[in-house]
C-alpha cells in the first residue's frame, strides 16, 4: 500500500479541534517540524498533546503554544519554553508531568495494546500519592490536581500502576522511510519517535529520505509500517533545516 501524501498540509488536514496527539522528538532533536508547521497553518485548536516536552519559544510545538492551540500537555519537563511555563502557572494550560521513562513506557504500552503496567518510578512521591498540580487557577491556587494511583507490592517492593497511552493522531520524523511506512530513525531522533508512532491511531511520519519498498533491509527497520498510515517526504531544504536548542562551544 502506497501511504505517501502529496503534502504535509494534506496529511494533517483532517486533524480536528480537541484531538489528542503524540508527538515525537526530544527538545528540538528529531521533532516533526514540517508537520507541526502544517498543523499550525491548518488551524486546529484545543489540542491534547503527549510529548516529552513542548519545544522552545517559536519552534516545534512552541508555535502551537504561542497561539493557544494546545489545551493540555502530558510530558516530562517544561524545558526552555518560557511561554509553556507562563501558560501553566497562569492557569491557561493543563499539564500532566510524568517521569520520563514512565512516559516512554506508557506510549509503548499503548501502542502494544497493553492497558496498564506497574513501575517503581514515582513510588513515595506525589506521582503515586496524587496532588501534583495539573492546572492552576488565575490566583495561583491549584484548580485541578492529579489523583492518587493504585499501588501494589511485588517481592517486597512497592510499585505504582500506570496506564498505557493511545492518541487520535501521532506526528513523527524519521531519517528514512519507504512507501509502505517502514521507518528508520537516526541517532537521537530515535528518542520518543518510535514510541509516539506506536501510540497514534493514525500516525503521520515526515521522512528525510523516501525509498522504494524493498530498499530497506528488514534488519535495519526500527518501526514497521503497520504502525504508520501516512508518509510525507521532505525536500532537501526541509530535511536540512535542523535547529539546536542550546549551542555550547569552547571559549
- What's the number of helices? 8
Give helix % range: 10-25%
Instruction: Supply Rg.
Output: 18 Å
> N-to-C terminal Cα separation, in Å?
53 Å
Strand fraction equals 25-35%
Mean pLDDT: 94
Query: Which structural category do the helix and sheet elements fall into?
Result: alpha/beta
Q: What series of H and E elements makes up the topology?
A: HEHEHEHEHEHEEEEEEHEEH
Number of strands: 13
Residue ranges: pLDDT <50 for 5 or more in a row? none
| Shape verdict | globular
Biggest pleated-sheet summary: 8 strands, mixed
How would you describe this structure to a colleague?
The chain is an alpha/beta fold. Helices cover 22% and strands 28% of the residues. Strands 1, 2, 3, 4, 10, 11, 12 and 13 form an eight-stranded mixed sheet that branches. The chain has a three-stranded antiparallel sheet with strand order 5-9-8. Helix 5 crosses helix 7. It is globular and about 50 Å long.
Give a nutshell description of this structure:
This protein is an alpha/beta fold and 251 residues long. The chain has helices spanning 8-11, 33-42, 62-66, 82-89, 100-112, 126-129, 193-199, 236-240, and strands spanning 20-23, 47-50, 70-75, 94-97, 116-119, 133-136, 142-145, 151-154, 157-163, 167-178, 183-184, 200-211, 230-233. The strands form 3 sheets. Strands 1, 2, 3, 4, 10, 11, 12 and 13 form an 8-stranded mixed beta sheet that branches. A 3-stranded antiparallel beta sheet has the order 5-9-8.
